[in-house]
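Encode chain A's predicted structure.
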Amino acid sequence: MKKLMSSLLVAIALCLTFFTTPALADAATALTARGAKLFSANCAACHQGGNNVISANKNLKAAALKQYGMDSTEAIIAQVTNGKNAMPAFKGRLKEEDIQAVAAYVLDQSAKDWKK
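Encoded structure for chain A:
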């Protein structure tokens, strides 16, 4: 339940970025900025620019995320937390809040087609 609520809060923060006060937008921006730093330090070796050096078709672009059922905060959090196939689990390496920030960043970047 705690994970679901945390995921819901991340999703709400991202949605509110476009429809609310600057303070809430700043919070969502801070979350994705934190996610960007964590992604760079932990994920970019295999996923630079939203790509996947191990399995090119399972990249982090919007179409692939949707195709593989990974286009939600919950799905990305589960993947990063538990790992799967060649991807290692980050549970124990990253805090739950850090994993949520990475998920927010991945969804934000996929919506932008990984263009800054």
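The mean pLDDT is 87.
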